Structures are given as structure tokens and as C-alpha cells.
Amino acid sequence: xxxxxxxxxxxxxxxxxxxxxxxxxxxxxxxxxxxxxxxxxxxxxxxxxxxxxxxxxxxxxxxxxxxxxxxxxxxxxxxxxxxxxxxxxxxxxxxxxxxxxxxxxxxxxxxxxxxxxxxxxxxxxxxxxxxxxxxxxxxxxxxxxxxxxxxxxxxxxxxxxxxxxxxxxxxxxxxxxxxxxxxxxxxxxxxxxxxxxxxxxxxxxxxxxxxxxxxxxxxxxxxxxxxxxxxxxxxxxxxxxxxxxxxxxxxxxxxxxxxxxxxxxxxxxxx
Length: 271
Prior knowledge:
Layout: H1 2-52, H2 55-76, H3 96-101, E1 105-109, H4 111-118, E2 127-129, H5 142-148, E3 152-156, H6 159-164, H7 169-186, E4 191-195, H8 202-207, H9 214-228, E5 231-233, H10 236-240, H11 257-269
Parallel strand pairs: 1-2, 1-3, 3-4, 4-5
């Protein structure tokens, strides 16, 4: 009788132990499934946030940075006497060493050119940067170019032309040639330099496939410049040499690109 009772107790203990093991395994497996689900949701959320970052966010960040630079400059420097006017064509925050090299020169282009102003590399006297500007719209600024009468003109176009011409490099080059012919005819003494279209990240190309034609655009631009006797400035290697070349939109360069670009333009033109 005692043996039978001990056997029953032993069997009950085994059953209880097995139940505990199954119970613990179930909740550990459930925790793993929950962790996998949470990690997947977190990754999806981060990917969604990254894809939602647009060029408008870049512009907003530029504006905020410019305001901060102006506030710091105003706080650190005493105001000049009322009767003393500030030097002409000089904005607070501009790099005077680089800007001085561009005296008598003009850079005109899209929001990438605008970055030279936003990050204080050049002053408005040396740069016209317009968001969304394309090469076919250059006519709108011919009178302003004539008014400023620069000895050296740097053109920076292509980012907006990629999508507008649907990646058609030949069409882009034809329109660019028309504008070059117009500039050469109207300003025969002006030295003209053409900046390359900057590389674009795979992220931005995936969202807008026409962006993938940036290299074909540059091949057409380089050939056109050789035909017209105009200097072509390739800036791609400068951008890609940076540890973090792009803003989160995958198109616009990060701020540390702009002084390097300005120096490269000045060196290419012998300024």
C-alpha cells in the first residue's frame, strides 16, 4: 500500500513538473513572438518616417539654421554706429574668404545653389539660387544677369530637370545648348562654367526613377561643353567623398559639401 501511494505521489510530481515546463516554454515563446513583432513594427515605422522626409524638410532646416546663425552673429558682434553703413553685398554668416574669391562672379541655379546662401558660403551678390529652377527657365534671369554683368558665370542646373524631362538626357542637352548659345551670343566676353548634375542616392532613385539618369545627363553635358568650348566642372567626387553626402531626402547635399564645392568652382575658374 505504501509503495502504491509513493508511486502515485511520484507520478503526480512528474505531471506537475511537466506542466510547469510547458507553462514556462509557452510564455517565453510568446515573449519572443511579441519582441519580433515590436521590432518589425519599429523598423517599419522608421522606414516610413525616412521615406516621408522631403525636400521641403531640407528647406525648413536651412531656414532654421540661417535664423540661428543670424541670431548668434547679432549677439556676438556689436552693432555699428547708426551713421556707419555696413559694407555692401555682405551678409552676416558668409565666409568672407570664399566670397571674396567670387567678387565679380555669379552662380545661378536651383535649390542646390541656394544652399550656398543658406549655409553662409556666398552672399546674394555672388549667387542666385531658386528652388525648383530648371535650365529652360533661365530666360527669366537674363536681364538680372545683364544688370549684374559678371565676368564669370557659373551655371548649376539638372536636379529638377531630371524629373521634368523624364530622364531624357538628349532633350536636356538640347535645351541646355539653346541657353548656352543665348548666353554666348548676348555676353561674348563672359566666361561661362557649367556645373555637373550631382549624384543622387538610391533611395531617391527608387522613389523617382528619372533621378537615375543623373549620370547620363552629365555625359551629355560634358560632351556639350567640349563642343562649345565651355568648361565643365565635375563635382560628383567631392560629394561622394563625404562620410554622409546626402540630406535625408537623398537628393540635397549636407552642409559640409557647400564650402568644398565653392572652392572647387573658384579653383576651376582660377578665381
